[in-house]
């Protein structure tokens, strides 16, 4: 009886773990990861400017460091079930190309929306468009789920 309770408890815990890291919770994990990266950027910006850095370089450095936090959390938390099989360097480069392209989308949406909306609303629309784009690109390209054939090809490439 003791063994069945332990086994049932483990199965129940495993099920809860899968629920936390399942497909249905991925958008929530994505939002949490982005929120942590955003707070990191703002905190670094405040720290650097408090120590006399000019605003533009401080923001650029804060953004670049926050992007590394975002990549690490995306790899280990948001898409942790998809980290196997693709090279880290390739994912890192694709991730940064994605966020760079979505930064352009953010600005274009902001500029277009600014003609009809207040500044903060236009900015929120740009952020939302970029976030949706980053989620789709992350899900379909950067951290895409690989087929067995693709994993085998990556393993052979790594072994060679």
Task: Report the total helices.
Answer: 6
Query: Which structural category fits the helices and strands?
Result: mainly alpha
- Strand tally: 0
Helix content: over 70%
Could you name the ranges where pLDDT drops below 50 across 5 or more consecutive residues? 1-15
Distance between the termini: 51 Å
Give the ordered list of helices and strands: HHHHHH
Strand fraction equals under 5%
- Computed CA radius of gyration, to the nearest angstrom: 20 Å
General shape: globular
Write down the overall mean pLDDT: 81
Largest sheet: none
Task: Give an overview in words.
This protein has 160 residues and is mostly helical. The chain has a domain at 84-160. The protein is 82% helix and 0% strand. The protein has six helices and no strands. The longest helix is centred in the middle third of the chain and has 27 residues, at 88-114. The chain is globular. It starts with a helix and ends with a helix.
